[in-house]
Amino acid sequence: xxxxxxxxPCSSLAKHEEFNSLTSIxxxxxxxxxxxxxxxxxxxxxxxxxxxxxxxxxxLGIGAWSWGDTxxxxxxxWDDRKMKAANAAFNASVDAGITLFDTAEVYGSKLSxxxxxxxxxxxxxxxxxxxxxxxxxxxxxKFAALPWRxxxxxxxxxxxxxxxxxxxxSVDVYQLHWPGVWGNEGYIDGLGDAVEKGLVKAVGVSNYNxxxxxxxxxxxxxxxxxxxxxxxxxxxxxRAPEENGVKxxxxxxxxxxxxxxxxxxGVLSGKYTPENPPSGPRGQIYxxxxxxxxxxxxxRVKEIGGNYGKTSIQVALNWLIAQGNVVPIPxxxxxEQAQEFAGALGWTLTEEEVKELRETASKxxxxxxxxxxxx
Length: 375
Ligand SMILES: NC(=O)c1ccc[n+]([C@@H]2O[C@H](COP(=O)([O-])OP(=O)(O)OC[C@H]3O[C@@H](n4cnc5c(N)ncnc54)[C@H](OP(=O)(O)O)[C@@H]3O)[C@@H](O)[C@H]2O)c1
Prior knowledge:
Elements: H1 2-7, H2 12-36, E1 47-49, E2 56-58, E3 62-63, H3 80-95, E4 100-102, H4 118-130, E5 138-143, H5 153-166, E6 171-176, H6 185-196, E7 200-206, H7 210-221, E8 227-233, H8 240-243, H9 246-253, E9 256-260, H10 282-285, H11 288-293, H12 295-308, H13 312-322, E10 326-328, H14 335-342, H15 351-361
Helix pairs in contact: 3-4, 3-14, 4-5, 5-6, 7-9, 12-13, 12-15
Bound molecules: NADP nicotinamide-adenine-dinucleotide phosphate.
NADP nicotinamide-adenine-dinucleotide phosphate (NAP) binds at residues 63-66, 102, 177, 206-207, 231, 260-266, 269, 271, 313, 329-333, 337, 340, 370.
Pfam families: Aldo_ket_red
GO cellular component, one term: cytoplasm
GO molecular function: oxidoreductase activity
């Protein structure tokens, strides 16, 4: 902009007017992009490095837990209509410039009736998309630290099975889904082996507490491999990482915090109320009492969003990104949901709003998290 002003031959008033008019055109253009919630390529850079790895990821990713799942999501049934909606969610995300997808070997476990494996679905969506364009998709998947999986060899072996389901020769991020019952040293060595074999670009963990993070970081560091990420439950209705030292240690060691359930499994949209609770297992977690208790927070989130022409979901995701070093991965079941997420990028809540929302959120009693965080 300074260049435009210097090179303009007219008076300073004209320069000023031109500045204002150019700014206004840009703001209008940006607002229309925001309203559409898409085409991130035309606004400021929307990628960051994952921890100290070389991997660039979008500032927001998409969670694929619900794709094919019949244990927690989808009212215990999966069908072609839901599959098409998930496929549309995938394509809408990529169209909007969001290319990071998070899945896991246990999502859509074949143990549950009618389920389809989430990795297989994601692999199929990627393959179909590749026939249309060459957009690079960044895949993050996870190793299930099941009690009978002992030692480092189990990590590379499980990763190879994941790669088969995904139809890929390598993935971008491989994460330990939760800490092992018998210890983690073997699994961490296995992550390092996966990097050295060229099967994965970056490695991370999930549901790791502060001490486990420090241990994993130090163990990988001896091999010159950065621990890139820790994926934990983090949202305006679940701020445990701020209180249990996990966010602080991620910032200290340069580990990206990947925030799961970042829209409180749909609650932060405001669509669930004490009169209209979510169906399935979510109804037990976000019960009438919780949904009554969370109302003042939801009202304030909505009000703030209104000032920006943004939805509550977009505010909730923007609030997480505003913490710095946080990549939220909301789950999208439909194209519309994915498009809405894209509108969380390209603008910023003020520091005062970020602070005020934290204060309002601190009055809400958090829901029960994953117990391993506290062990
Ligand atoms: N590492 C771990 O242990 C762990 C644990 C949990 C999740 N994760 C990861 O994190 C991802 C996201 O977490 P999550 O799926 O638990 O929760 P979430 O992202 O907070 O919520 C996702 C749900 O919110 C609803 N929703 C989505 N967009 C919406 C919109 N625009 N308006 C209204 N409702 C909307 C949808 O369900 P409805 O439409 O049915 O309401 C959707 O399935 C998962 O997919 C998974 O990849 C990891």
